[in-house]
Amino acid sequence: MMEIRGLFQMTESNNEKGLLTKKDLNNMAWRSFFLQSSFSFERMQAGGWEYILMPALRKIYKNNPEKLKSALKDHLEFFNINPFVVTPVAGVIAAMEEKGEDREAIRGVKYALMGPFAGIGDALIWLTIFPICQGLGASLAIQGNIAGPILSLVLFNVLHFVLQFGGIGYGYRKGLSALSKLRTGTKQLSKLASIVGLTVLGALIASYVSMSTPLVINAGKVSIKLQEDVLDKIMPNMIPLAFTFLVYWLLKKGLKPSYIFGIIIVFGIVTKYFGIF
């Protein structure tokens, strides 16, 4: 840790006039879309990670084949991160390679960023951006508007491209000075993204999960509607909420989503036939 802190002080200035051009950085960003195309349980995304860095490493070590071999060997070690936020890390590492930082320091920074960025990527993408984009698309699709799925797909991928191409430039230009800022804000941003994402998911459940029962309880001459007179008095939308928690419980138990979809379809057919829901 002391060695890495020392490197922060050595590389405080921005890397705006570096060796790598905008074309090189864009090439790396395009390659980031193939991060998981070379995947193994032994090294996870190492092959894709090295594929991203290849343009930078070849240019940096153009006149030093031995250092290029050493760098390529190092970056084939275990690597695993959320693919949507890999480019800022790649930019930082490329800047360190260009400045000739110690190989152990580069390895240490790379591993130090994997965990936090995996967490923040999951919270930012799967709990915030993805539900919002899908929710906007679903709201139109439910109304029969064909623009719903198109809007969802386009909006999500526009944000994806902004993250990939903006992240590589930011990481490279700022170098390790960006690392200190990212490390301090990672926990707060991850927590904030989780809260926003869960709030959005809660709103989507209330808006789009619709279930009610027509059952009537007869007690002598009195008829009590189970939905309106009992359940809604206790808590509105109790049945959709309970059904959502049931699906969540099945997912936590490790049941495949395809099986859960099948269960929901069979459940809907059976309960509709018997007039339960």
Task: Kindly summarize this structure in a few lines.
The chain has 11 helices and 2 strands. By secondary structure, it is an all-alpha fold.
What's the pLDDT, averaged over the residues?
81
Tell me which oligomeric state these chains represent. single chain
The biggest sheet amounts to: 2 strands, antiparallel
N-to-C terminal Cα separation, in Å? 60 Å
Strand content: under 5%
Pick out the low-confidence regions. 1-16
> In terms of structural class, how would the helical and strand content be classed?
mainly alpha
Features:
single chain, 277 residues, mainly alpha, 2 domains, two-stranded antiparallel sheet, 11 helices, 72% helix, elongated, disordered N terminus
